[in-house]
């Protein structure tokens, strides 16, 4: 077992995570790889302290937060175990918009209309499991394929889990890519609806007439915590989802 956690890849440089987040990533990667399957007993805190060279307080915090998120189970006087996987409904898989565009041979571009902190309204608070009026991060993007608007993205993000969100460069990185890079075991649910465009959609997607659209409401969470909720609007005559 290594004395430190590092990752070497070709992604742009970003500041190192706090030590407790590194410990959490290490545990989650062992779970994802199958090295630590369901019901596996983790090494003791004393063992992790000795082998990783990290303080027991930091190890304890990481394991406590993973337990609260449902990834681990701690039995007093016995030890810490990998929790049994929760049964989930089969969900649709949705490729990220920049991947969809590039697979079609197009060039992806993102227009950032606003990226800000604001009080959350009642409807969004219900989706995000937050209290109405609580501060939330909100982004409003239009994604283009060779200059043609093909998706409107209206997204809420919980500041507690993504404090860096407002400082991110979304002209080169989609919000879903940012989320998946930070949270290895992020889960998603989708509700798909058919709708006709209104004045807002017509304006931002540059539609000349009322148009049939596909609306996908996408929620992303970690354990029991909702990280993000997004409304994705696609004009039916401009893009095909497969």
TrEMBL record:
Lineage per the UniProt record: Bacteria, Pseudomonadati, Pseudomonadota, Alphaproteobacteria, Sneathiellales
CDD domains given in the database record: WHTH_GntR (cd07377)
Key words of the record: DNA-binding, Transcription, Transcription regulation
SUPFAM superfamilies: Chorismate lyase-like, Winged helix' DNA-binding domain
Location of the HTH gntR-type domain: 17-85
Stored Pfam families: GntR, UTRA
InterPro entries in the record: Bact_HTH_transcr_reg, Chorismate_lyase_/UTRA_dom_sf, Tscrpt_reg_HTH_GntR, UTRA, WH-like_DNA-bd_sf, WH_DNA-bd_sf
Gene3D superfamilies: Chorismate lyase-like (3.40.1410.10), Winged helix-like DNA-binding domain superfamily/Winged helix DNA-binding domain (1.10.10.10)
Protein name, per record: UTRA domain-containing protein
